[in-house]
Amino acid sequence: xxxxxxxxxxxxxxxxxxxxxxxxxxxxxxxxxxxxxxxxxxxxxxxxxxxxxxxxxxxxxxxxxxxxxxxxxxxxxxxxxxxxxxxxxxxxxxxxxxxxxxxxxxxxxxxxxxxxxxxxxxxxxxxxxxxxxxxxxxxxxxxxxxxxxxxxxxxxxxxxxxxxxxxxxxxxxxxxxxxxxxxxxxxxxxxxxxxxxxxxxxxxxxxxxxxxxxxxxxxxxxxxx
Length: 225
Ligand code: TIU
Known about the structure:
Blueprint: E1 2-4, E2 11-13, E3 18-23, H1 27-30, H2 35-38, H3 44-47, H4 50-63, E4 67-72, H5 83-87, E5 98-99, E6 102-103, E7 125-129, H6 140-147, E8 151-157, H7 159-172, E9 176-185, H8 189-204, E10 208-210, H9 212-224
Parallel strand pairs: 3-4, 3-8, 4-7, 8-9, 9-10
Antiparallel strand pairs: 1-2, 5-6
The protein binds tricarbonodiimidic diamide (TIU).
């Protein structure tokens, strides 16, 4: 067991039973011209975490620990997109509309893809999810059971939407989850701060948080021991 210095108390990371889940680091959320920007958001905040998420993925790859990527999106016929989701808000582009990066949030379109810097490599699991949570209507639970994972390290965007929803789903399924604070981001800094507090309050009611440096230190300490 590796003890990671975390909030609200050390996170017990179990090598061999821990998977990294990187949520929705897709061009549609991170780059101009995509879904995130169409909702009125400034996407530059999200771009800033790409190097940190890359370091986190590298840490897992170097050790041969499993890396799972998720992508939010829908089939071209929108059969898996509830009309309520497509109709929500007042976006300049709705899900399925044609934009600068192809059809918004549609499988296989340029905007639906993960940013080049964080692209999955052979052998890594990619979960396509129609909702905010990565367990809803996906094979994620089965994949984690196959891997024997009991602990999740979580990163990606956005903190209070898809990341928090996924952590709550995971928590209810019995996983211990550590969110890497500088490898997640929101379009709204105050929502990120609030989400981190909600997750860790009441004795890790949803999970733990820690900076990437704490995970790197804990893992390096074990290697030296
Ligand atoms: N809008 C927003 O903050 N997020 C999403 O729509 N999806 C994810 O968080 N991935």
